[in-house]
Records
---
Amino acid sequence: MTTPRTVLVTGGNRGIGFAIAEEFVAQGHRVAVTARSGQGPEGTLTVVADVTDAQSIDSAFTTIEAQLGPVEVVVANAGITKDGLLMRMTEDDFTSVLDTNLGGAFRVVKRASKGMLKARFGRIVLVSSVVGLYGGPGQANYAASKAGLVGFARSLTRELGARGITANVVAPGFVETDMTAVLPEAQQAEYKKSIPAGRYGTPAEIAKTIAWISSDDAAYISGAVIPVDGGLGMGH
């Protein structure tokens, strides 16, 4: 049985983040989620926060620490997309995606690391994407932000590894969420053809991988990129 921990999932009000929070609750952990709007699953503490604002992250942590104790597991999941071809991509399309997806992870992890260093224990999980290393047309901003998480996790591992803190990247492929549900049938069939497993993943499959990499059993894994993509990325 994994030791009960205080867990924070950013963007835990919908999709994959919601499923991650649900899984940690089911495993008996104390779970908080940050959200800009909406609520996390039943049994979680929802704190309103914006990952692009360090002050709002700090006050979210202060609330969580007061109610659940120092954060021992942080899952940086909050992310946005602003897809578009390079020629049409605006400065803001690029910088806002970088600032949320990569800058957001930096702000959240930096604040979490204080308590982790004191406790000499921590699990940092960064939610990337198969697109981060595989690339995707119209996604230069998103892919760059998701690839950046890999360098970030590996630097954290070298910096914090001797203090009982691990930092890993989980890279989901196509997953059944509201975001994929709106794609036209023909496009969905086309995507599925490129996935060796022949299907999309489920949010629960991503959540269980993240819960495992955060567990006591995974103490000697750090700086890894774990694909959960049905074989789509293979080696990328």
---
Amino acid sequence: MFSGIVEETGKVVRLEKDRENLHITLQCSFARQLSTDQSVAHNGVCLTVVRQEEDTYTVTAIRETLEKSNLGLLNEGDEVNLERSMKMDSFLDGHLVQGHVDQTAECVRVEEAEGSWYYTFAYEPAQEDYIIVEKGSISVNGVSLTVVNARENTFQVAIIPYTWEVTNFHAIRIGTMVNLEFDVIGKYISRIVRQQLAGMTKGLKDK
């Protein structure tokens, strides 16, 4: 479990293809503190540390992860948003993020607003339960953000200078693909409501 508060960006230093898997080696300031089997979110994707060497560590992304996220688009030298798993006795500064990316979205607009930035993303919902509501929570590349200007297939987020500098938002351009994790509470509520409506409809037909 994560909070969506990115600690820092890590640098991709090596990519190794292994059949349908991708081994990703990254360099970051807390690499020496990591141990194998530890969970770290990478652009919002929860991956397990499989190897640690000095100031680098390696994680493995399987085909399912590569298909649902932007990790398969990584190149050596790219910046990746990193967050270690949340401690239960710490403050929850963002929102509950599982590290299970639902799908990707494309950046279609970037607007500077006198010191802050508005990013617009377009997406086609992969499932009916993937919903966005105005002022609701959304994880974009692992960053906990508040939705503004929610539309049917687009939404905006506002980025303050600190977030722009600390995360890889400063590298996002028009056409950049980002990872989305929709609010887990919203997904459950949406599924429950749909199931109840389906049950009601079936009951009416049976009468």
